Every structure is written in structure tokens, then in C-alpha cells.
Amino acid sequence: MSISMAQVVSPPTILVSVDTQTHKASSKPLKRTHKSNTSISTKRKVPRSPLDRTQKLNLEVSPHRAVSAVRLMRIELGGAFADLLNEKGKGSGDNEMAYVERSLGFRTKALDDRDLRLVTDVVGGTIRWRRYLDHLICSLCHDENTFRSMEPLLLQILRIGVYEIVKLDMPPYAVVDENVTLAKVALRPGAGNLVNGILRKLVRVKENNSLPLPKLEGDDRAQARALAILYSHPVWMVRRWTKYLGQEEAIKLMVWNNSQPSFSLRANNGKGVTRADLVTQLNLLKVPHEISLHLDDFIRVKTGLQNVIQAGLLKEGVCAVQDESAGLVVSVVDPQPGESIVDCCAAPGGKTIYMASRLSGQELG
């Protein structure tokens, strides 16, 4: 019996499984079944290109949900940082799908710009509202033990579905159908049935305005626990903020803390671009924005940053993405010509560049 060339050069297959109790990854190599009397071809072995390998492409599964589930797994079980998973540049799409294939056993179609925005929104929102989402999921389960023993991937899929229905107000039928499909394909039919039951129950109680949420009643400890669920913050933090700020101000702070983050654009005064010029450009691109309340050169943008990038405003130096907090530092420093200023934590140097642009061509010392 002879072996084909592909059999010779292919590495042993490794299956990676996740222990649902310990959340630790374990690897189990498949048993090799080659017989000892097999003959091996003496032809020169040519390495196979990655493009030649058969990829398990699944077109039924929602790309943004599959990628979101894998990212959430990497964050919760692998200690990854959400911001660092927003990879950009050449080959980033292939890298993303490689993670999906290793984790779920298949690839989805490539992510488009809309999918990428959804992934960022779903992952960030699911992390921010995790305590709230978990309370709803647990309340809608048959019993608490069902929730406690739920495997990590299944829990992430449910969190995504609940977040999309409750916080993003996506069409319920689409959310239920596509998350059920993901659970069935990535796990097993029974997992899909569980997702279907919980999400459909959620849709019913949401339509009846009867979400199973705690009420603000009882002593201070009981109210702190309720607030922690309602606004998805740690109990100790709720108690501390309530103690020092009062309940009303603490709630305002928690609402702000979990709000959708916005971006700030700084007009490049060094190139003679004023904030009014930048506003004109954003209006032409139909990018919703608002003027910064604190800095003359800054504009806040909640959505549409991709349009700004595609229009080339960053590449051409019309503006830069910079947080207002960084701009406030420069405003406080108030650099003057001839001064020597040392930036001890410069990376990538945004504040230093802003200081230079404020000098209008004049030099620091």
C-alpha cells in the first residue's frame, strides 16, 4: 500500500477542546493509522501553499456573529484586549478567519465594512453589559444550574443574541434565526434548540415590557446589587459611588460609563486647516458630528469614521484622530516658542505633534 504526497507532508491533526468546567484548553492528537509496511514515495516533497488547502467555508453562518463569538472567547478565556483585536491592514482578514476556523471548525465569508463595525459594536457592548445580559439569560433558563454549567461558546452566542435584541433593537426574527444557526453549526443541534428557546422567550417578555429585572427596593446592599445588574457594574463600585456621589449621580455616571464611545477629530492647524474647514468636509461626507465643548480644534464623531478614512482626510493630513483628553493636556501645557518640553510617555507622539501644530511653524527650544 502506498501513501499519496499529501499524506506525507500533512502535519498530524490537533483537536483543541475547551473544558466547560475549568475553562482550560486541552489538546488531543488524533491517532495515526498508518501501517508499518507502507512504502513512501521518493519524489521530492513540495510544500503545499496555504491557498491549496481545502478550507471549510460555511455560508449559512452570520460572519459578524461568528467573529464576535470568537473574539469574546479570546477576551474572556485568553486574556486578550478588545481594542487590540481590531486588527487592520494587509492579511488581517485572513488572520481573523484563521482564529474562527481554529475555534469553530469552519470559516465564514469575508467581513465587509458593515460587518466590521457590527463586530466592534457587538463585542464592546457585550463586554460592557455582561452582568446585565447574564442576569437575563439566567432568568430565562429553566433553572440556575443550566446557566452555571453552560459551556463558554454557547454562553457567548446567547450574550450576543440578547445584546442585539435588547440593546441594539435588531429585528428579533433575524437575531434568533442566525444565532440558532451559529450554535447548531459550531456546537450541535441541541445547543441551537436551547438558544432558540431562550431568545424566543426574551422576545416575548420584551414585547410585553416585562423583562425579568430586579427592583430598587430593600436596604442599601440590596439596592446596590440591583443597580449593579441594571447598569452592569461591579457591586463594590456601585456602593462606593453611591456612598460618595449619591444614588442619582452614581446612576448618571454608570450610564455615561456604559455609553457608546465616540471619536474625536483634531483639525490640523499646522497645515492651515481650521475647525470650520473640517466641519465643511464632514458635512460633505454626511458624517454626523458635534463641536467639542472644551477645545477649539476638536470635533466629536460617533459614527461615520470609516467614511472619513476612505475620503483620505487622515492620509492627507486634514485631521487626526485624537482623544479630547490628550488635547486637554496640550491645552494645559500651553507650549510657547523657545520652551523645552519633555514628553516622557510619547507613543505614538500625538500630543507632541499637537503641541508643534499649535506653534504655527515656530519651534520649541
UniProtKB/TrEMBL annotation:
Does Ligase appear among the keywords? no
The positions making up the signal sequence are none
Q: Which GO terms describe its molecular function?
A: RNA binding; RNA methyltransferase activity
What domain of life does the native source organism fall in? Eukaryota
- State whether keyword Transferase applies: yes
Question: Which stretches of sequence are listed as region Disordered?
Answer: 19-51
Q: Give the record's GO biological process terms.
A: regulation of DNA-templated transcription; RNA methylation
Name the residue ranges with Basic residues bias. 25-35
Cite the binding residues for S-adenosyl-L-methionine: C345, A346, A347, P348, G349, G350, K351
Keyword vocabulary terms for this entry = Methyltransferase, RNA-binding, S-adenosyl-L-methionine, Transferase
The record places domain SAM-dependent MTase RsmB/NOP-type at 253-365
The entry's family comment says:
Belongs to the class I-like SAM-binding methyltransferase superfamily. RsmB/NOP family.
Query: What's the protein here called?
Result: SAM-dependent MTase RsmB/NOP-type domain-containing protein
State the organism named in the record: Dipteronia sinensis
